[in-house]
Amino acid sequence: MFWRFFYNMFALPVMFFGFHLAACCNRKIREGIIGRRQVFEKLERQLNDARNLEKIAWFHFTSVGEFEQAKPLIEAIYAETRIVLTFFSPSVAPNVADYSYVDAAVYLPFDTPRNAERLIDIIKPTCLIFSRYDIWPNLVWKTSEQDIPIVVIAGTLHAGSKRLGSFARSFFRSVHQHITLHCAISEVDAARFRQLCSSKHQVVVTGDTRYEQVYQRALSVEPDTEFFPGQTTLSRPILIAGSTYADDEKVLLEAYQILRKDAPEYNPHLILVPHEPTPERITEIQAELDRQKLTHRCFSELNSDTNLEDTDVLIVDTVGILARLYQLADITFVGGSFHGSIHNVMEPAAMAKPVLFGPTIQNSYEAFLLLERGGAKMAHTSQQMADVLKEWLNDKEKLTEVGCIGKRLIEENLGAVEQTLEYLQKYM
Questions:
Q1: 128 forms bridges with which residues in the sheet?
Q2: What are phi and psi of 101, to 5 degrees?
Q3: Which of 102-105's residues contact partners 24+ apart within 8 Å by CB, and which partners?
Q4: What is the rounded distance in angstroms from the CA atom of residue 230 to the CA atom of residue 85?
Q5: Can you list the positions of beta strands (E) in 335-385?
Q6: Model confidence over 304-361: pLDDT tens digits?
Q7: For 17-42, how does the pLDDT look when each residue is reduced to its tens digit (9 = 90+)?
């Protein structure tokens, strides 16, 4: 009871005011606040028009990556189950809007006891399912009070998680002990979850459901087909940098210039895919490339007469094509790894592409596995990155071998969907 009092009387007010204060200078937070307006009315309207099914699965996730982990399970149970989705990040909204396997989807309102009770009353879930780690205390406490099963799928807790700290651990135990089942992606993650759970609650290892998603997506991409104008004029090696931030681009472009100077015989085309290709970001990237005297074009400018042979950097100013672009790469760099948390390393690995990233990978168990197996390399500096690029480009057999290691890792980890479904069905 102490932790509920502390959370609701102290932590929540601080979070609320901090959230609204940050909205003054953060576009995504503003979008989230606007998206949460009249959220209950939106949810009720959608459910009034939804399929009338006895079983109701309520999935919650924070962002696109966690949505991807939930998708295979959603699609497996959709035919016999009403699907309700809640999400936190504005980046999910367009993905959910285009998704076919859903009956209702809204932003998760602020985590007050009253909001949690109202959501449960409207949705009437058979089961509440959290994807990965975006677990909200009042939502858990209020759902548990009504004896509704709560399941975490593709659960992960990295070694440096604040939830395991000496002060925070007691609080998170008061939350996790009300979760019926934790499906962890690995044994080390399961062991960490057990530190937060009571012995009567189940913690099992089922693997990461994203492996199926990225593997199927990789299989669906047709190799050696031209899907954008000028593609066939990319005559030099191709380095694709996916989901990048300014911090990533600074190191990457320095490495690119070192490589061009030290090994001009390689001089790869760089396809740069910023994490958020807003007009402001594109302008920022273009200005930096002009400063570094690198020739560049934007993806949206390409036409049937485009010749990219003398283009150093192709800036992708659209969304939704990164997975297909990876098919073209000789080498891939995954962004976020110099920014705070690395993005999806599975997609390039599933296409047998060598993966390069920076030092910030604590949020990605699969990045550690790739590094351990030799399917990826980590660079801490621009010089280290240039050295790796030079090594790989100088040895085509090594390049192929590294890519194959990554693909084998993906194939070895298939089966998480079936294992997770086996447990999930018990609570549906």
A1: 58, 150
A2: -95, 55
A3: 102/74, 103/46, 103/47, 103/50, 103/51, 104/43, 104/46, 104/47, 104/50, 105/46
A4: 40
A5: 355-357, 376-378
A6: 899 999 999 999 999 889 988 999 999 999 999 999 899 999 999 999 999 999 999 9
A7: 888 888 888 888 888 889 899 999 99
